[in-house]
Amino acid sequence: MSDAAILATPRRRLSTAGKTGIAVALAWATLAVFGPYLAPYSAGHVGNAGVFAAMSASHPLGTDYLGRDMLSRILYGARYTVGVAMIATLLACAGGIALGILSAVRRGWTDSVVGRAADALISIPHLMFALVVVAAFGTSLPVLILMAAISYVPGSFRFARALALDINAMDFIQVARARGERTSYVVWAEILPNMIVPLLTDFGLRFVFVVLLLSGLSFLGLGIQPPNADWGALVRENITGIYEAAPAVLMPALAIAVLTISITLLIDGLSGRDRMMVR
Amino acid sequence: MESMSATVWRALGNDSDKAPVTPHLPTWTEAILGQSTSAEAVAGLRKALGLDLPAHERYLRWLGGLLSGDPGVSLINRLPVAQLIGPRLANSLLLTALTAAVAVPLALLIGITTAIWRGTLYDRVANVTAVSLVAIPEFLLATVGVILFAVQLRWVSAMATPSVSSLGEALQSFTLPVLTLAFAVTAQMARMTRAALLGVLDSSYIEMARLKGVRPMRLVLRHALRNAAGPIANAVALNLSSLLGGVIIVEVIFSYPGLAKLAVDAVETRDMPLVQACAMIFCTAFMLLVLVADVCSILANPRLRTT
Amino acid sequence: MTALVEVSGLRVTAATPGGAESDIVRDIGFSIARGEVLALIGESGSGKTTIALALLGYARRGCRIAGGSVRIGGDEVTGLSSGALSELRGRRVAYVAQSAAAAFNPALRLMDQVTEGVRMRGLMPRAAAEAKAREIFRALALPEPDRIGARFPHQVSGGQLQRLMAAMALMTDPELVIFDEPTTALDVTTQVEVLRAFREAVRERHMTAVYVSHDLAVVAQIADRIVVLRDGIAREIGPTLQILAHPADSYTRNLLAAAAPKPQQAAERRAAPTPLLAVHGLTAGYGPVDREGRVATPVLHDVSLEISAGSALGVIGESGSGKSTLARVIAGLLPAASGSMTLDGVALAPLLEARGREELRRIQIVFQAADTALNPAHSVERILGRPLAFYRRLSRSEQRRRVRRLLDLVKLPVALLDRLPNELSGGQKQRVNLARALAAEPALILCDEVTSSLDTVVGAAILELLAELRRELGLALMFISHDLATVRAVCDEVMILYAGQVMERGPGRVVMQAPQHPYADLLAASMPELRPGWLDGIDAARLAEARGDPARPSHSDRCAFVARCAARDGPCGTDPPPLRRFAKGSDVRCHRTEQELLAQQSPVRTAPSSFPSIG
Predict the structure, then answer these.
(1) FRET pair for B214, CA 20 to 30 Å: which of A76, A219, C6, C363?
(2) Which chain C residues are closer than 8 Å to B210 by Cβ?
(3) Alpha-carbon distance B140 to A211, whole Å?
(4) What is the pLDDT of residues C277-305, one digit of tens each?
(5) What is the pTM of this model?
(6) Measuring CA to CA, how many Å separate C278 from each of A160, A201, C330, C348?
(7) How far apart are alpha carbons C169 and C153 in whole angstroms?
(8) Based on the number of CB atoms within 10 Å of its own CB, is B151 exposed (0-12), middle (13-18) or buried (19 or more)?
(9) In sequence order, what are the residues at sequence separation of 6 or more whose Cβ sits closer than 8 angstroms to the Cβ of residue B98?
(10) Could you say which residues from 170 to 189 on chain B have a Cβ atom under 8 Å away from some Cβ of chain A?
(11) Which of C86, C171, C178 best probes binding to B when mutated, by most B CB atoms within 10 angstroms?
(12) Do residue B139 and residue A263 have CB atoms under 8 angstroms apart?
């Protein structure tokens, strides 16, 4: 492009994909926080529609094995599925990003040690790791959150480290260093701004994995315990409804799928080209 | 090996018998002795099982036993762990092998064809489907599958067993579990295959071959696949390792007597030696697959093969 | 006689993200007679490769041939079926790509790829094809012609790969061969050899050829007629001699002017007692340092130089010479293993962590690739403002004022202040790069190949800017490049590096016009000049003897250039050559005496007509 043509080009603002992404994320966050207030019934309320009722006007998603409204149960459960997963993902990404940038910028001894630790952790299948942790420490909420966070720190670390290494190799970092800038400036002002968008997509991806892990665990009965229920536990407690093809067993699973698929499609669209999901 | 034990060590921590008691997860002491036990009874049981020793000594003893071929004894039913695991391992291997046999050819087919016909409607539909499938929880697929095919249509059974005497029974038993497992794995494998092949098809030497007049069929088979084979094999191996996660849920849903189900049951009863042994096997399998993937990557690159 | 190639009204379009199509080239028409060589000249984005590919009926992804006609030997290429196209390509029309390393399949052996064209069409059995290939290898002067075919692409050098690609093209005895910038990626000394080989091949076979390039001097050696392209339109078409001597189009005149940059007049300098920057015995490299103080991977060895305030030193070298490393060591980004540096007589610490802020401020570095030298997340204002804020505490309004003044200095419009780097052109990015260095008000700027990745015209403008800034601000420059012509235009003193060592160093006109070191002589002789007879006038035998890729720096004591030197003698292979001052005023690292070297050199080169010597 000639110089004159460049002057005429308008600057682009946030793309439509970006705006959609923010909208969807806000929608889920609202659901998580305000779920119980949006529910038509309280979580434990037993109506008279009977057990495993079909979908109807008064029970849009049917009733569960005790006759409780599924829509309400799901809305109450949103806090656990979305909220707990969010906290765990935030912990995982915060830890991974901090360690990743530290390793990339410091290299040397720090890099080797943290790298090996990450390699060790990554060599364990996540669900298996979860099983072992639960067997040893039980199923309290802090344990679950911490376990999920630790499971996904290595992945986040590797990603952040690779990103930071790429950026660190660029000439503008050398220019900053040659100026005499301190490492803290280089990390905060030069490296991080270039990492924000990819890190956001990575966060979204990890969130999906955490949701699948925690709900899978609850489905096995080793996650959130009654009387609290996240969507995976809801599937579990209504599993006998499978023989009656009741919506009660299908709806919570569907809810999880809607959450994970919407976020995944979003990430895929945001990142432009096909992005590989590496568990 | 070392890192695995380190991990399991971390997971075990110290007093595995003092895990918080919750209404749904009985401690193993309760499982053996019943709900109401006296402190002396618990202490006596602990001593008998060697649990009064400090944690690291217990761990070292277990590790020593493992390395000399004795993974210990199950806390619950007092049978040697090896004896319990044997048949279940075989069952799980059968299930995963069947799944791989279905998933790998299908994934390669879809991956290669979507790369060759990139941008067409077929490619875009396949892509969106694949992305969605990867994000779907296995129990949704399984639930839908069971409701649809087992309950309503009655084509297959809702439970799976490995002991089948005819092809018809085998199909009845294995179709749903294998398909459920295969869906997510196939989708991800196809995507990675497509990306690997596209990466090669977009390279300059393929363009040069086209400009030399090489026809499309020869281009893909002789020029492109040769270079994509390594990354594709890498993708296949990596994704097979993700089977190890999905198999846990599938075995539980379909009550399939495999290793994963054994592990889950063991966790419920806090049967630590059993859990440890199962975890060890899973970890080893996982690492082996990752190793194979790495080796494929290296072999495929002629720069690393020759000097 | 009917022309072999007839192009008229050619139009190629590309799909834009919005969905519309934009023209890459339009209204292109020319013809090529049999046995003629036509050159397509233009900068990046001019459409020359697009036209070359259209001759094969090929358009890159997202592009299509939208209109016009391309006839080769009477056949309309744009209307051919894909089967017929596969027949045409590689058989009647052959293509030699720009980057040989990228054009060969890394997983297949070279002989298989070279002979694939004839074997897959059943034109020859394998044995005959391989025999013919070996013949062509010999004709192209490839080393080990009988065995090179068994290797993989990564096992041979760039220059050899380029000739292998030409061999691949010649195998099918095509009617038309298209060379697409084949020597652009090669070192200067390799380029000459490859160019000669191509020209021989074309002449011997009376082939018709299309030669695509941005380098007028190269094209002048090989082409009979030239098409000058800009922004997808043909600006001028004509015989080579006519275009070079009497260009009709204004753009052509710009190109010619940029290809032969005039040396700028330097401002009067007051001689200072101490040089601004003095470097003594600098040795540097990568990896651990062993007991004898030697680095595992040596890059520079015993480099010494001096730069006075306001003067410009040119550092010339090919790949592996260590010139970029020199800049990094002086800037403190890379530690020197041994040697010393002083700034205004005061010792300069080897690593920047140990230097004071003032010292860091006075030496600034400007990198080659502006794409990676500017933070893509920062606006131009932020990029320029940071050094100002870092080195001086300024009020917001004062800072804003200074940033605008900086833009003014590098002739950029104020409207660019809130732009991000990816919204700027290559030339604009490099100017911002320069402005950032100027923001610190340095005494010395290290320019590392700052014009190498820019178009010739754009690069020439940057050189003019640099000369102007030197005059206005009294800046000292260390200008690193592989291109003798650009160095000639900017620098008072010139230093030539080879394999990490200084081979010759002295006043510009001495080193450029009458270089004494054999390598310096080879470099000067290898630079294509703008007159058509230059390639014929080269001493082929000498060039052949000096053939080879630039040597890597090593630990051995002997002269690094001994393998390629025509003047080598007894001690050259064993003892390190001394650096001595010769009568003409330059320092030369050689065992031989001045008279002996003089006898070896090429005949006196006529100074290019547009270059007045600096008085």
Answers:
(1) C6
(2) 58, 89
(3) 13
(4) 999 989 888 888 777 777 888 889 889 99
(5) 0.81
(6) 42, 50, 10, 10
(7) 16
(8) middle
(9) B174, B178
(10) 188
(11) C86
(12) no
